[in-house]
Amino acid sequence: MKIETTINNQKKELNVKNYTEPLLDVLRRHGYVGTKEGCRSGQCGACVVLVNGLPVNSCIYPAGRASGKKITTIEGIGIPNKLDKIQQSYLESGAVQCGYCTPGMILCTKSLLDKNPAPTDEEIKLALDGNLCRCTGYVKIIDAVKLAAKKLKKSSHR
Amino acid sequence: MFLICVNLWLKKMEKNNFQQVGKSKIKVDGQALVTGQPVFVGDFIIPGMLWAKVLWSPHSHARIKNIDASEAEKLPGVKAVLTYKDVPRIPFTTAGQGAPEPSPYDSFILDNKVRYLGDRVAAVAAETEEIANEALKQIKVDYEILEPILDPKNSRKKNAPVIHDEKEAHMPLPLAYEPKKNICAHIDIKIGDAEKTLKESDYVIEHEYDIHYAQHTPIETHISTAYFDVHGRMVIITSTQVPFHVRRIVARSLNIPVQKIRVIKPRIGGGFGVKQEVLIEPLVAALAMKTNQAVCLKYTRSEEFISSRCRHPQVINLKTGVQKDGTFSAIDIGILQNNGAYGSHSLTILCNTGSKILPLFKCKNIIFDGDVVYTNLPVCGAYRGYGATEGYFAMGIQLDEMAEKIGVDIVEWSKKIHISVGETSPVFAALGEGVEGVEQNISSCGLDKCIELGAKEINWYQKRRKTQTGRYRRGVGMVIMMQGSSIPEIDMGAAFMKMNEDGSFNLLLGATDLGTGSDTIMSQIAAEVLGTATEKMLVYSSDTDLTPFDVGAYASSTTYLSGQAVLKTAQKIKEQIKKVAAEMLKEPVENLTVHEGKVFGKKGKATFSEIANYSLYTKHQHQIMAGESHITHKSPPPFSAHFGEVEVDTLTGKVRVIKYVAAVDCGTAINPKSAEGQTEGAVINGISYALCERYIFNKKGKMLNPNFNYYKIFSTMDLPELKTILVPTYEPTGPFGAKSVSEIGINGPCPVIANAIYDAVGVRLYKAPFTPDKVLEAIKKNGNHR
Ligand code: FES
Ligand code: FES
């Protein structure tokens, strides 16, 4: 079956095997390979994308449900040489080691900061609790979210 | 002592006035990672690629009497089914170590015997994963079920079943190996006379420590893709820490020449040792050969838990003798190590449990012996810490206990008992990686400063030994540690460099960046030597066709070993640049200095770009290029002191880490943020291991919790306050004074938390992990709350 969605602000028709096919598989098949697979069971957050601005684990999200919705993947955040402030903050803070958890982390960060531009440490931890990272120990990821909040605040004041 | 180190380091810093090194440069591969570019194995989709799936053994120990794949083969879309009948019967080890490996050749791509629940039985390649899964169901297997060994204490018993009864199993080096007795490695070392001195010691403590299975859980599971290029050569794109060992071991296992294979490591999604294993590449390669098509095999999370590799559980019997003045008289360690069903890294892990712990302490009388046994349980392999994690668990707890016994503060005592600059230990020469080690004197050590700063940060003297009442009790604990930096006189790394017209450089590295940031660190080292910016380096690493050899990312070696190869290469390039500049500027080479991407003479100057253009197009044309290799004759230890504060809920037994401090001397931190990141990642992994990570087996040896719901790893809400302190020293044999940092951090949490629990509630835990049930039971038994 086919579904209509908006991916990264572009209208897109997706070929879907059936209503319950995981959105993760559909996205990767259509070239959005920045969305990663770590467990296929909603337990690691590597596959997070935003659906209407909210983070979902795309590995357990039925693609059919995405019909008519707005999807944001990591490809829609920023591209090489044109990084978004959150991406820049992750790099500057040393929050990226292997980078496999990073797309999911960045999308959760975006969703958090869109709603709450000045989160506390506890709020950051809560927002990222579903995203596992085995490399960093999370310390620098939390730094990155704080740095991103700062950068975004600065730019919104201009 | 520390002051000398600092002064020496500061002097060198001053002299060198580092521009690129010692700075937290942004990862050279960072942009691609934060934008989700296709850089991981699974992102390379080759048209017509097939998907592989493996049939796993439902039994712990069985012989395959009959296997019939004919129905599976008939399924539309199935392109190949492999059983043991279809693959060469060549024994090899999956341990990605230097050749010949000090691990037994006891594995086949597929075998007619299964040795643990989760062992391979057959493999399928099909057009889709669904078809492959369907095909697995159609394979009929008739097993003769054999008695399993599910407790390592039973492996050496007289009439125990023999797990490796195949005639081919052997050790490629002349090392102890007795598969008929289920012994896959053995070590026996005596230094001085420990038996006698133990008897004469003022204080002796002996105890048994039990440390458990765990999995690395890289967020990217094992994945490899194999295909044939236009020349009919096999290309394997794989998530590995050891691309050159992959090439060699695949060649052996399939009996094809190395020349026919190219291994490419793209970005990899974490390794921590589990990808030092040549685990799935031979199988994927065999499927590609059978189908003549591209084949991809990716482990599911549950396969990663059960059928990849784990940390080696050990039962450690440790006995130490100490004199009244606090000096060691003897240490006696006996180890029983469970390797699971195959012998990967068996001997070397065991050796490391001694060689990374014993030299830290000034002790002349040592007994170190151990057996590594086979069981019908999941297979163990390299895991960050590599035996030292296990060893420090026992040693760290016993020293805390000993300090109490002799009536000294463990922090003060720790400063007195450790090895220092200029000193050596007989253990360095006696114990190496499977073979004898290499003698060395310590040439940098910031451990005293680590202890001092760590104690201050945790507020040791205010918090230690507090009398408390009430449900929640707090306590603090500490441990001191060392690791190594590479395997001396065994490991080799190499680099190659060439200069481009605009003054940029291609840096080709064998070294394998597994997410640790080594590509960036190597760029910083090269840029520092050349007096140019890190951003001028174009790194390409780990491609067996295009980059020079490197043993790979393990044994805490990359910065120290491969970094030195890069440094030497860059020095050669610098000489060539100066030679061209001398000709251009008509000045003698001695007059020239190089910095900021330019060569300065007494009269004039030339930019790197002008020099490169001159060398390529103007006169005496040649390519400025060079390559160098490096081996080390030392393995200088990084040192570290860890401190932790815990809160124990005496009602439930739950332990929470409130604050954790890791002070580490890794020499010069080439990239301080990366060094901190290595430490933070290792520490959190270690805390998670100490408190909640565990394998739960049923009576048949089946691991029951192969997912993140029931095998809990730390997430953000579990974090303690974590403070990393880098204590700079200058290691004269390392690139710009650097030593290793990646592994040491994981060794601290188990003993630190055990000691802090004791400080809080007065119970000693000798068996990890410290789950609420165990803590509560210990509290109840002891009753003697602090
Ligand atoms: S892959 Fe979706 S949560 Fe792990
Ligand atoms: S950076 Fe490797 S899993 Fe997060």
Defining key terms:
heterodimer, A: 158 residues, DNA polymerase, domain 1, five-stranded mixed sheet, B: 786 residues, alpha+beta, Aldehyde Oxidoreductase, domain 4, 3 domains, seven-stranded mixed sheet, 20 helices, 26 strands, 28% helix, 22% strand
How many domains comprise the coordinates of chain A? Answer: 2
Helicity of chain B, in percent? 25-40%
What structural class should be given to the helix and strand makeup of chain A? alpha+beta
Distance between the termini of chain A: 46 Å
Describe the model:
The complex is a heterodimer of chains A (158) and B (786). By secondary structure, chain A is an alpha+beta fold. Chain A has 2 domains: 2-76, Ubiquitin-like (UB roll); 85-156, [2Fe-2S]-binding domain (DNA polymerase, domain 1, Orthogonal Bundle), CATH 1.10.150. In chain A, 35% of the residues lie in helices and 15% in strands. Chain A has a 5-stranded mixed beta sheet, with helices on both faces. The longest helix of chain A is centred in the C-terminal third of the chain and has 19 residues, at 139-157. The radius of gyration of chain A is 15 Å and the shape is globular. The model of chain A has no long low-confidence stretch (mean pLDDT 97). By secondary structure, chain B is α+β, with helices and mostly antiparallel strands. Chain B folds into 3 domains: 2-37 and 492-631, Aldehyde oxidase/xanthine dehydrogenase, molybdopterin binding domain (Aldehyde Oxidoreductase, domain 4); 46-146 and 217-306, Aldehyde oxidase/xanthine dehydrogenase, a/b hammerhead (Aldehyde Oxidoreductase, domain 3, Alpha-Beta Complex), CATH 3.90.1170.50; 314-484 and 636-782, Aldehyde oxidase/xanthine dehydrogenase, molybdopterin binding domain (Aldehyde Oxidoreductase, domain 4, 2-Layer Sandwich), CATH 3.30.365. Helices cover 28% and strands 22% of the residues of chain B. Chain B is built from 20 helices and 26 strands. In chain B, the strands form 6 sheets. Chain B has a 7-stranded mixed beta sheet with strand order 3-5-1-12-9-10-11, sandwiched between helices. In chain B, strands 7-15-14-13-8 form a 5-stranded mixed beta sheet. Chain B has a 4-stranded mixed beta sheet with strand order 16-24-25-26, sandwiched between helices. In chain B, strand 25 (655-665), helix 18 and strand 26 (721-726) form a beta-alpha-beta unit. In chain B, helix 6 crosses helix 7 (281-291) and helix 15 packs parallel to helix 16. The two termini of chain B are 37 Å apart. The relative contact order of chain B is 0.13. The mean pLDDT of chain B is 96. The chains are: A alpha+beta (158), B alpha+beta (786). Chains A and B meet through helix 2, helix 3, helix 4 and helix 5 of A and helix 2 and helix 18 of B. The complex binds FE2/S2 (inorganic) cluster (2 copies). One FE2/S2 (inorganic) cluster (FES) binds next to loops of chain A.
